[in-house]
Design brief:
about 280 residues, alpha/beta, elongated, 7-stranded mixed sheet, about 40% helix
Length: about 280
């Protein structure tokens, strides 16, 4: 059970155009603050306290939303406990009851294990086959680095990042979360790929919860509404831009070659016609 002096909140992050904001009906039965960080100044809600979020990386909203998602101590330092949930996560129980049952007093971080994959390596293999989630070569580089630096991490059990309970002001939690953010900024936007590495590097072990994050006694996943992953930040990576630049340069060279060849053929045609006229 959380100490009575501990102040709690539930929060989420929603960038403009990503999907329609979901309500949280359970909020009416709770004394806990429900906070939505967003860069969309038109959002209104009966259950969420809408708070403005300035995107640190305006052209990369997906990575920008990772700042509050992974580092609540930067944004919620006046709260002791936070429950992060994705927009499509619906709570079945009040946050007070969730904390009472799932976050023991001596625990800084609790999250549900991944519902399908039992090893982090499998998460890499899956994401690498889904380019709408991340570019394959980004995943390949990250996997290669992890394999070289800490291969044992790839055999650890991944967590699901859609439901995270944290005593976020604890120093060990802060240290692990800051390291996690570094990995997301350096490698894939898919934070589940780097969670275990960040924890291993900071000697931090979260409490793994044996519940399916898609449907369990505490929460369930509702269908997304007006979901658009592209608007949410699937922007070109540096590697993609470099590749596109190379392709454009090659195309321009080919266009120039064909233009020159066309001019040569046109001149040859004129010369031939002149010779024909002379012969006639």
């Amino acid at each position: 059970m959380a100490a009575s002096a501990e102040r709690m909140c539930v929060y989420m992050v929603l960038t403009k155009g990503y999907e329609t904001l979901s309500s949280q009906p359970i909020a009416v039965d709770s004394d806990v603050d429900f906070i939505c960080f967003t860069d969309d100044h038109t959002l209104v809600s009966n259950t969420w306290d809408i708070r403005s979020l300035d995107l640190i990386l305006p052209s990369d909203p997906t990575r920008s939303m990772k700042f509050p998602k992974l580092c609540p101590h930067r944004y919620l330092d006046d709260y002791d406990i936070s429950l992060y949930i994705d927009n499509n996560t619906q709570l079945r129980q009040t946050p007070e009851e969730i904390v009472r049952q799932l976050l023991p007093p001596d625990t800084g971080f609790a999250a549900m294990f991944h519902e399908i994959r039992s090893r982090a390596r499998q998460e890499f293999e899956t994401v690498a086959q889904l380019p709408h989630l991340e570019m394959p070569w980004v995943v390949a580089e990250q996997l290669a680095h992890y394999q070289a630096d800490r291969p044992d991490v790839l055999d650890s059990r991944p967590i699901n990042g859609s439901f995270m309970l944290r005593r976020h002001n604890r120093k060990d939690v802060e240290r692990a979360m800051e390291r996690w953010l570094i990995h997301v900024l350096r490698y894939s936007r898919r934070d589940q790929l780097s969670a275990r590495m960040a924890f291993a590097e900071t000697d931090f072990e979260p409490l793994g919860l044996e519940f399916d994050p898609r449907d369990n006694p505490f929460a369930y996943k509702a269908p997304r509404r007006n979901f658009d992953r592209k608007i949410g930040g699937k922007l070109p990576t540096i590697a993609e831009l470099d590749h596109a630049t190379d392709e454009l340069a090659s195309t321009n060279i080919e266009v120039e070659r064909l233009t020159t060849e066309n001019r040569r053929l046109q001149q040859a045609t004129l010369d031939t016609n002149e010779r024909i006229e002379e012969l006639e």
